[in-house]
Amino acid sequence: MFANMINELREKLNTADRGGYQCPRTISVRIPAWQRSLHNTYNTSMLNSLHHVVLEPFEQRNSIGTIQLISPVFSIVDDHLSISSTIKSWLADGLHRDKILLDVAMYGVSQQLIAASGNHSGNVIHVQPTQIFNQKQVYLPIHFVSHANYAKNEPRQYGNWKL
Question: Where are the domains of the chain?
């Protein structure tokens, strides 16, 4: 059904009046990082016919009131969910490497862990961010922030930055 919708969309876009513009129209899909196995849900041949498949590396809602940050770039153990493990799985499922785009956020989010001791990738956090930073605010002297500070689960002040 999804493949049929994409084919119909492609047909409509290719026959639609472009209003004098020469640029081709493109079709891409976003798939979340937690969707590691493409062949269970998608037709890989259809995905390879698209211009891009965008890896959405952000959070996943677990239940009412909680989400889980699930997309570190690499995991300590190979079987843990990460951007790297998802890409490896997609390639093994037959998705062409040149189709994959990684969505990188142009904002930052400060979030509070539900359990102060759970300061590892994949730990549960409150749904509502404590603060959203714009692109100019994202730059942060990371070397001042240690894992011990994250475990305290309390706001921290670094110069003008309140985390």
Answer: 1-58+76-104, 105-155
**pLDDT tens-digit readout, 91-150:** 999 999 999 998 876 666 666 666 766 656 556 666 665 666 666 665 554 434 443 444
CA 111 to chain centre: 16
- Output the six-digit token pair for 137: 């605010």
Q: What is the pLDDT of residue 155?
A: 45
Task: Judge if pTM exceeds 0.85.
Answer: no
Cβ atoms of residues 127 and 66 within 8 Å: yes
Contact (CB, 8 A) for 153 and 147: no
Between the CA of residue 150 and those of 52, 74, 88, 126, 135, what are the distances in Å?
36, 19, 30, 15, 22
Burial track 11-30 (b if 16+ CB lie within 10 A, e otherwise):
eeeeeeeeeeeeeeeeeebe
Question: Mapping DSSP to helix (H, G, I), strand (E, B) and coil, where does residue 90 land?
Answer: helix
Q: Select from 97, 10, 11, 1 the least CA-distant residue to 42.
A: 1
